[in-house]
C-alpha cells in the first residue's frame, strides 16, 4: 500500500474518532445498560429521545435555580453554558462539539451525582444516565 | 526604558501605592485543586481564608453551600493539604494579610465575600450584582478576568 493511501486511511480514522465515537464512552454505556437491565428486566436499549426529554423537563424536587438541565446548559447543548449558581462558564455538553464529554466514568458519575441532586432533587438511575449520554452523543 | 529601571519603578510604585500590590495574591498552582474546585467555580486562592476555615469547608463537602460536592477522601486530602499550607494565616502577605485582620482569633469564616475588606471594595448598587453575567458575589471572573492568576485589578 502506498504511503499516500495509508495517510488517507489514517486521516479518515482520526476524522471519525474526532467526531464522536470513543471506546470509553461505549464501555460506559455498556456498564449502564447492565445496571439498567438489573433495575428493569424489560430494558432493551437507551433512547436519545428519552434523554432529550430528561434534559428539557422541569423538575420540582431540586434547587429552584436549576429546575432543568437547561438552566445551566441552555436549550441548545451545542452551545456553551453557565453555572446558574456560580456563574462559571461551562463547555458544551454535546459530544460533536466537546468530544471528550462522557469518556471518564469517575468524572461522569461525580457530575451526575451533583447535577441530578441539584436539578431533580435525587440521584439519577442507570436508565436516565444512559439515555442522557445517548442523547448528547448524537448532538 | 530598560528592564532594571522598569523593575525599580515597579518597586517604587508598589511601595507608594500598596493598593496595587494588595490586589494580587499567589495563584493556585496545585492541579488537583484547580481541577476539582474549578469544576464548579473559580478555584479561590487559599490566602482568603485561614487554615481552620479550609479544614471546616473540606470537612463538609456533602453540604457545600447547599451543594453536594462530595469527593473521594484521597482527593480531599490533597486539597486540604494545599489549602491549609497556603492559607491566609499561614502565608500572611498582600491581600491575604489584609483579609486576615478581620478574622476573629478563633473565627471560622466560610464566605470570602463576607469579609469587610471584600465588602468595602465591592460597595456597588444592587443593579451591579443583578447583572446576568455576575450571578453571584463569588463570581470574581465576571469583573476580574485575571482573577484565576491571582490578579484582582
Automatic annotation (TrEMBL), chain A:
Any one Gene Ontology molecular-function term assigned to this protein's record: metal ion binding
Start and end residues of each Cytochrome c domain: 46-139
Tree of life domain: Bacteria
UniProt keywords, alphabetically: Heme, Iron, Metal-binding, Signal
Keyword Cell wall biogenesis/degradation: no
Keyword Phosphoprotein belongs to the record: no
Signal peptide, first to last residue: 1-20
Name the record gives this protein: Cytochrome c domain-containing protein
Organism of provenance: Reyranella soli
TrEMBL record, chain B:
Keyword Translocase listed: no
Cleaved signal peptide residues: 1-21
A Pfam family annotated for this UniProt entry: DHC
Organism domain of life: Bacteria
SUPFAM superfamilies membership: Multiheme cytochromes
Keywords: Signal
UniProt xrefs under InterPro entries: Dihaem_cytochrome-c, Multihaem_cyt_sf
Protein name: Cytochrome c
Higher taxonomy: Bacteria, Pseudomonadati, Pseudomonadota, Alphaproteobacteria, Hyphomicrobiales
